[in-house]
């Protein structure tokens, strides 16, 4: 609120989160987790364990969500997200998020939702057709509720999620127009500095169920196997042959994880010229990933051995989140003239 | 729970309510209010002042809702609904209703909602087209949340609302199947004993804005004018002419409100035969309605002169409702495996 704020914490608030539908993997690590560990020192950061959003396409298979909530919390803590700096909270346990969603759903038309490019693509890829659950079509409204409930102004996203930011800001402007004063803040995207990490087979989005992702809980053996099976250059049959670096997942992972970037460039040059085998590049990558994941895995194991403690972390963050979001809900209720008591 | 329940109160629970988009009128009086006054002695009855549902087609005009909440509460009390017997509560102030709606929305497809005949008709009559607000298309889900949140098993409805009961029971069955035990109760309709009262012009649905409804707050003069302007038989030009009773709004109202049914039948016979003028029938109806409305209007005026008291009634009922609905929410959260703390 003043220029003398300690630790130079920015006034911008960050909201981010994950659908609790699986353990987190290396894609999350480079795409968001690393960034969050840094951002928590500069910003008021909230991470939502999005169990409700996870249910929007798992309503009939809720175990997929419920069994992963503590996994995701353990992943957060294991990579260094600090609950003293970052509010880690559970979406379904914060009533204001549902209440705001109900208010906002009166301000967004069905056709507007159907035009949302992100949702359009997801509907196509999930093969919903007309059987799309209402909760899935309307989840951009629920995201707007999440963002505004925390007064968040900076939203870490991939560029495929920019339509979500636009939808949120449309709702913010409508609300402010109804209230006749700026009760909600518009948000802006914080684009991820790295592009999406490919799956180990180079084909699909990473997913635990497809077996093409390296989880943060991966064992030594799982890491070894995943790297060994990694997609490289199918035309690179003999060590002497020149090989392609583009689309070669081993090099993409080396780019993402190997600390010495100069060395990676040297490897690429050698691979392109011929004379560098996949066995060698994979060995380099594997040892790098083993070194990265080992301490995370160990911290994670310890965390998962005391689930009561994980629940406590989530509960404490959620209590804090309930306090914060109640204030925005009251402002929205006032805008609609419904705060009678 | 046992056969020795005091006062022979049924174990069936009733949920009913009104969209808070206008003052209540004689149509509500015969269609639901009278019935509620009786039912409150036999049943555990909850009346929801449905401000959130009112917003589903008034999101950009929330005053239409907010300005009518206390009006509706005053109408209830003025006709004899007793807050000691009936829980009168405010929909937007009960978080569990929004939270349950979010859970249920993952179990209902968009195409199922679009097939709902009641919603279909309303979309047509409101001329929404594709600009239908998400909250409006999904309001049957929200109604299912309302009904189940209160464990309601008897729902007073007109026959045009039977699809709402069916939609609710579909959700109940899905939930019970997910929970693998009967955590929610199916409900059944309690059909209104009287058919819908026509508007005074005999043309449309009664509505304050169309000036074709007699409000429970109508002044002596307003009642007189409304009855004088009432639609009768346009072919009945002279007193001596035979007149038509069917579609003659004056007789429909006499049927609905005049206590002496035998006398009304005599009047009908005379009107059909010729020799009974509209002036006479209207005078009889007017005096009957003046007598009915006068004490309601007086109680209503007194109630509206102390809005703090009305807020208090609503607040007390809402607190009770919050206690009741929290239990069902917990059961649903448990079914989804999300009750972590």
UniProtKB/TrEMBL annotation, chains A, B:
GO terms for biological process: tryptophanyl-tRNA aminoacylation. The keyword RNA-binding does not apply. The keyword Coiled coil does not apply. GO terms for cellular component: cytosol. GO terms for molecular function: ATP binding; tryptophan-tRNA ligase activity. Its EC number is 6.1.1.2. Keywords: Aminoacyl-tRNA synthetase, ATP-binding, Ligase, Nucleotide-binding, Protein biosynthesis. It catalyses: tRNA(Trp) + L-tryptophan + ATP = L-tryptophyl-tRNA(Trp) + AMP + diphosphate + H(+). It holds the Pfam family tRNA-synt_1b. It comes from the Bacteria. InterPro entries: aa-tRNA-synth_Ic, Rossmann-like_a/b/a_fold, Trp-tRNA-ligase, Trp-tRNA_synthetase. It is an enzyme of class 6 (ligase). Belongs to the class-I aminoacyl-tRNA synthetase family. NCBIfam families: trpS (TIGR00233). This is Tryptophan--tRNA ligase. It comes from Photobacterium marinum.
């Amino acid at each position: 609120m003043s220029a003398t704020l300690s630790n130079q914490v920015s006034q911008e608030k960050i909201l981010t989160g994950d659908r609790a539908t699986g353990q987190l993997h290396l894609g999350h690590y480079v795409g968001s987790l690393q960034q969050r560990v840094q951002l928590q020192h500069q910003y008021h950061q909230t991470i939502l364990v999005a169990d409700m959003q996870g249910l929007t396409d798992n309503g009939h298979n809720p175990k997929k969500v419920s069994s992963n909530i503590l996994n995701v919390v353990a992943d957060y803590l294991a990579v260094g997200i600090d609950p003293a700096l970052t509010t880690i909270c559970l979406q379904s346990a914060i009533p204001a998020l549902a209440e705001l969603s109900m208010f906002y759903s009166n301000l967004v038309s069905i056709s507007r939702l159907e035009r949302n490019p992100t949702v359009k693509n997801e509907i196509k890829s999930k093969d919903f057709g007309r059987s799309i659950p209402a909760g899935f079509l309307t989840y951009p409204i629920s995201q707007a509720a999440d963002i505004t409930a925390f007064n968040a102004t900076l939203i870490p996203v991939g560029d495929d999620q920019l339509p979500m930011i636009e939808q949120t800001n449309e709702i913010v402007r409508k609300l402010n127009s109804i209230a006749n004063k700026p009760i909600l803040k518009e948000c802006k995207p914080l684009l991820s500095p790295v592009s999406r990490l490919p799956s180990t087979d180079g084909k699909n989005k990473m997913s635990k169920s497809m077996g093409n992702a390296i989880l943060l809980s991966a064992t030594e053996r799982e890491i070894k196997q995943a790297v060994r099976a990694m997609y490289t250059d199918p035309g690179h049959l003999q060590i002497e042959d020149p090989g392609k670096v583009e689309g070669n997942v081993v090099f993409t992972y080396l780019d993402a994880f190997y600390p010495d970037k100069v060395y990676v460039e040297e490897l690429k040059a050698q691979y392109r010229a011929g004379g560098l085998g996949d066995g060698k590049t994979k060995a380099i990558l594997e040892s790098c990933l083993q070194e990265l994941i080992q301490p995370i895995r160990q911290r994670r194991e310890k965390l998962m051995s005391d689930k009561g403690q994980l629940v406590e972390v989530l509960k404490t963050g959620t209590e804090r989140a309930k306090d914060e979001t109640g204030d925005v809900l009251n402002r929205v209720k006032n805008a609609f003239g419904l705060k009678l008591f």
